[in-house]
Amino acid sequence: MEQQNLNEEQNQQTKPTYDPTKGKEVEDKSFLPKDEILDGVIIDIKCDIVKNMVDKEYLPQWKGNLDSPCIEVSVDVPRDQEKLKNYREYSDPIIVPQIFTYEQGENGEIEYSPNMNLGKFKDKYKELPSIGLPVKISVTKKGFGKINLE
Prior knowledge:
Layout: H1 2-14, E1 37-49, H2 50-53, E2 69-77, E3 94-101, E4 103-104, E5 110-111, H3 117-125, E6 134-139, E7 145-147
Antiparallel strand pairs: 1-2, 1-6, 2-3, 4-5, 6-7
């Protein structure tokens, strides 16, 4: 019985609490060095429509058609790069997701224009996204990554 009480106390000590009167805004934390170009490899591609792929909080900001077909490309950024030497203490993998929209052709073709991000991807990397394809990740001034399309 004493062991059970000890376990309950430990669970209560580590259980998170929520008190809206104690809210505190902090800066976004980034696991990437700002203003850098990093190497990455596509590790996953998911396909759906935009409104099912984009986080609900960002849907109001989406500029295109929410019912457009899209892919979410996930890129692994290996930590052994020299530019990440100060970021190696984190154990979680660095995964950079990015959404690309396209149009579905009558016979299942993936249709895109040169001005769409998928077209820019094809122009830069000479092929459409596929698992295992090496890509470059551009890190913004705020320290967040996206696939380099320029």
